[in-house]
Amino acid sequence: MPLRMYLSFPFSSFPWGLFQLQIGLVSLSVAGFAALLSFCSLVFALLLARPTSVHWSCDDMFSEWTYELCRDGSNVTSELADDPETTPRDVVHRLFKPRNGLCGRCQRGERHGGIGQLDLQQAYLCGKWGAKRPSDLFLQIYHDVLCTLDRNPMAGCASPALLGSSGVVPLTIIAPTRDVCRHMANCIVRAEQEVFLATNFWVSSRCSTIITDALKELSVRAGRRGTAKVVVKIMYDRAHLKQIINSRQLVYPQAATDVHVQLPPPEHIPNLELEAMNYHQPILGTFHSKFMVVDRRVALLQSSNIQDNDNLEMMVRLEGPIVDSIYDMAIIQWNAKLRPMLPMVNSPAALGQPPTFANPAAQKSPEKEMYTVPQESIRSMETEKRNELGCDREEYQPDIESETACIQACLRPRNSENKVESVTRYLNVIKRPDVTGDAPESSDQDEMTPYILHAPHNPFPMALVCREPWPALNHSSLYTPQNMAFLSAIRNAQKSIFIQTPNLNAECLLEPILNAVRRGVVVTCYLTLGYNDPGQLLPFQNGINEMISNRLHNSLKSEKEKSRLQIYNYVAKDQTRPIHNKFKKRSCHIKLMIIDQHVAIQGNANLDTQSIFHSQETNVLLDSAEVCQTWLDGIRRNQNTAIYGAVSPQDGCWHDPVTGDMAEDAIGVNPGRFSWIKGFVGAIKRVRGRSFADAPWLFGFILISI
């Protein structure tokens, strides 16, 4: 007889009466029930396992072994080019096996002060920087990044010889997710041989439709050319029970029929060879990376997922040798055998010129015209009847100059609109008559410019600073390349630190930020009000932005020190006040740190507990005063945070300048005695409507937290 079990979490019987969670009816045979018990035992074993990461500490100098790994040039990509039948996993095990044991200083977790010129020279010799020598600040950060490789040379998620490189930035995008996806789509349809796309969330939506339509168009173009099929690899993270056994699951063509994903079915893309992988390391090892590589010539590194939301995002287009570094990282993360192999595996980007600046038209653009778009191009492309995606979905542009003109045309006032109303229309990803702008008109010099064309420039130093996923329920995975880049940047800053991140609550960053302020550094933080507050209220997440802001301000003694800590809540370009993320009207998801106005870290990582201790992240460290200044100017132009978003140093919260009230629905510095319950309720709401497979990690986290 089948055994019917009714599994229920009776949260409604709690005195709080906040929520009820039911899993449902499961009909099982006795044998099936025994199998389920065994499976659940495995799940709970994973939940309770709390191993210590090898990155719980770090030495203050890197070894001769690390130096040789960086210098000898061995990398996974070139090995795969020589032997396409092997797997990235096998190459990594052969070339970069972790060393056993820790040195004495590492075991004690000791960290010392600054580094000398000999150390800087060693760091310099561990990269291929091109014609420009990196600044001392960049080399100090890169030196500390290399120190994390001593026990695990793959801690940087790419071959050590490719971490230090160079490249150019032809285009920066500071825009809603829709227009980040639009540039991705234009790059996809221009691909000739291959596309590698990685994201955290892939949710069937209008933004995902922009990408899938581009894949269909790419198939059509490949068919017209009559060449070999274009190879496409897609990675995303949708946690599933199967990943307890194997964290990487190949999911195509099943993903074509998954209502939550809806990749194009094979019959719709006959001229593409598509593989898709779902990657998640249970419980907390999220694949949070977001990047795309096209034909091993262009890399896009962004803050955005593939989904519809109200976020302002940031994407950077990278070209030059740094593309080889990101390409190598992508292959390593795939881990399994590539079927088929990527066609460009034997064609390094370093052997050619950056494609954008090789275009004669781009070479003519003077520095002073960095933001301008030819008016005749705008007039020729502008139409009154744009659909709600901004530009017609079928409209693909031949180059980034045309793309910029198209996007800027969407911001031009139509009919009787003024500038603010046109910005409101642009930022309303879906039609929102309830969202209106109240900001005053801006000057032409402060006009919103979502696509920012950079003047042609020579390659400058860059480095890949990533972190691998850490799934265990502890914070021992601290000294990773990404985290050391952030910590070293803060520690070595001399004048200024600019940070924009949705959340700032990683404990390891707070005291270094305070120390920077105390030694005279001006620290500016742009944070998003209410961004994932429920998640930040869960146990071990360290709290919401208002709590951290209040704590930081109260930790400084003198008014002079407090004046150097400048914290703001994000304010959209058409607004005069921050809007809580709960309302899904105006949020910001940009992740950026700029140190002393010439060194920057840009990419996927938030400065919150999850990104610092658990998620896989991809970021680039770069050394260019010109690019950093352009980014700072773009941040200023595309939001009103600096004008209206300052929080009070008294309590760390934003207050209405007239009434003194906090923003609507802001929690403030005291979320209450049972704030963790609010976190659970919010987390339940976030997985509501998603597949049941998304929920087990949440259940486990609830159980282990309680």
UniProtKB/TrEMBL annotation:
GO biological process: cardiolipin biosynthetic process
Pfam family for this entry, one: PLDc_2
Disordered: annotated span: 358-386
Organism whose genome encodes this protein: Ajellomyces capsulatus (strain H88)
GO molecular function per UniProt: phosphatidyltransferase activity
Record Gene3D superfamilies: Endonuclease Chain A (3.30.870.10)
Membrane-spanning parts: none
Protein name: Phospholipase D Active site domain-containing protein
Residue ranges constituting the PLD phosphodiesterase domain according to the UniProt record: 283-310, 584-611
InterPro entries: PLD-like_dom, PLipase_D/transphosphatidylase
